[in-house]
Amino acid sequence: MKNKAGRLDSRTPEKKPTSVAPPGVTFKPPLKPRRGLFYALLGLLGVWVGVLLSLYFLTVYPNRHQHVEPSNAVQTPPSP
Question: Where are the beta strands (DSSP E) in the chain?
Fold first, then answer.
C-alpha cells in the first residue's frame, strides 16, 4: 500500500485475533523418561560400534601399508 507521500507502507496489515483454537488440535501429556530403555539402547549402540570397529581392524587395518612391487612385465629397453 502507498501512503499519501507515494512511499510504500512497510507495516503489515492488521489481522483479527482468533481466540478459538481449531477443534482438531489436542495436546497429550509428555512422555515419561524410561531409564531402562535408554540404557538398553545405549548398550546396543555400544555393541554396534564395537562390531564396526572390530570389522575395521580385522579387514582394513592390516592391509593399509602393503608394498606393491613394480611388475617386471613392462620394461623399457636400455638406452644405447
Answer: none
- Asked if 9 contacts 2 with a C-beta cutoff of 8 angstroms, the reply is yes
Instruction: Say what percent of the chain tops pLDDT 90.
Output: 41
Print burial letters for 31-70: b (CB count within 10 Å at least 16), e (below 16): eeeeeeeeeeeeeeeeeeeeeeeeeeeeeeeeeeeeeeee
Q: What is the pLDDT of residue 65?
A: 77
Query: Which grid cell sits at 47?
Result: 555393541
- C-alpha count within 13 angstroms, C-beta hemisphere, residue 57: 6
How far apart are alpha carbons 4 and 23 in whole angstroms? 43
